[in-house]
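Inverse folding, one chain.
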């Protein structure tokens, strides 16, 4: 049965740190791959007693995942793929993420907290620092393999951004009366539904920039992230996988950008 990216990453770090008793170690690519295979065999009870020369290579799918993991560890500065300047000829190929980027399928490129913050600030220069704090925490949780925590942090960030929009409306005498019924609602979902209904009545008066993709980048994304946040924040037992979380990390950026466009219009 194939192992997850996070399982391979944890096993690789155990080998590299010397926490696992494996003879091959992790001094080079193939040795590390074979060592991870042996770690899994030991943990899963597949080691053959008395057969000290047996090897337990990763299966084809795990090898594919390991290849991407190896270069992730390199990009993150955890390992270096060469021992010295005499072996610098290394083959290159696109990862799955790289293929998406090359084909224009990935709108935002990031791989750690710093690059994620840079992507957010580039798209939303006026992002609130408290909102950004939760977004960075979400990315940190994602990198640590804590998908449920990352999803909850993203939910907090989108809700906080929406509440900032309501504060702008409540502080503007021109719009206070129009949106008064929103402020009196008890739950965030009720506030959002009321706001969205009122916003629909004034769509024609909104600038074209705000109207463009409004349903997708505002209502649609908020609904998706709140759904995942609720699934993660309550003991449902539902597992959020890495790919889903990565998509949510990307979706929150256009959501925040649309929210700040609305804030600028209503301030």
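Residues assigned per position:
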């Amino acid at each position: 049965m194939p192992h997850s990216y996070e399982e391979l990453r944890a096993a690789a770090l155990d080998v590299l740190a010397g926490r696992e008793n494996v003879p091959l170690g992790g001094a080079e690519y193939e040795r590390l791959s074979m060592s991870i295979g042996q770690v899994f065999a030991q943990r899963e009870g597949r080691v053959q007693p008395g057969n000290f020369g047996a090897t337990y290579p990763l299966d084809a799918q795990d090898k594919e995942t390991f290849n991407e993991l190896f270069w992730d560890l390199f990009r993150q500065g955890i390992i270096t793929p060469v021992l010295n300047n005499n072996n610098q000829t290394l083959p290159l190929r696109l990862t799955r993420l790289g293929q998406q980027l090359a084909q224009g399928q990935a709108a935002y490129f990031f791989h750690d907290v710093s690059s994620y913050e840079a992507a957010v600030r580039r798209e939303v220069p006026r992002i609130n620092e408290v909102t950004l704090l939760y977004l960075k925490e979400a990315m940190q949780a994602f990198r640590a393999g804590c998908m449920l925590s990352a999803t909850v942090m993203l939910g907090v960030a989108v809700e906080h951004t929406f509440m900032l929009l309501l504060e702008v409306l409540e502080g503007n005498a021109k719009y206070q009366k129009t949106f008064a019924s929103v402020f009196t609602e008890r739950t965030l979902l009720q506030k959002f539904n009321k706001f969205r209904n009122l916003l629909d009545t004034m769509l024609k008066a909104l600038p074209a920039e705000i109207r463009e993709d409004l349903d997708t980048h505002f209502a649609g994304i908020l609904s998706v992230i709140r759904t995942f946040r609720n699934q993660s924040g309550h003991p449902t037992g539902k597992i959020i996988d890495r790919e889903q979380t990565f998509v949510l990390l990307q979706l929150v950026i256009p959501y925040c950008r649309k929210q700040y466009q609305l804030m600028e219009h209503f301030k």
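The mean pLDDT is 81. The two ends are 55 Å apart (CA to CA).
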